[in-house]
Amino acid sequence: MxxxxxxxxxxxxxxxxxxxxxxxxxxxxxxxxRPTPPPPPPENPNPAPADSARPPSHANxxxxxxxxxxxxxPQPPVESVITPDERxxxxxxxxxxxxxxxxxxxxxxxxxLLPDQxxxxxxxxxxxxxxxxxxxxxxxxxxxxLARKARQLAASLNCPG
Length: 161
What we know:
Layout: H1 2-15, H2 20-24, H3 84-108, H4 115-136, H5 140-155
Helix pairs in contact: 3-4, 3-5, 4-5
């Protein structure tokens, strides 16, 4: 019996509780062999001298550096490339989703809810507020996503009407 116990302890000690995959090492490229990204450019390449109150003397002034590179123009928002018909359809979906979510939230307003229902209620109201803010910024793609989430969440609230 003692020999069996020693044998089992030895087997356990040799195999350990880790899987073979963990002993092989993590998959992928080791950190040391990955290329190092270039450092970011300095934020202010020509800092102002500490004594900038004095007028500059022309005898020992350094010529100004070349003008900064022009900043690229910002990309137009995604909504600017959708057709008016697509915009109308998107707005109709947003209105339908927010209407359904809003009615579910209103049905539960003022009622005593269980803690998990309260969390769903608060989250749905928050999503409706975020949808409104996205519409004010004309971010239709975001507003549609938020409205859909609010509708799906509010549908799980079971408050009798």
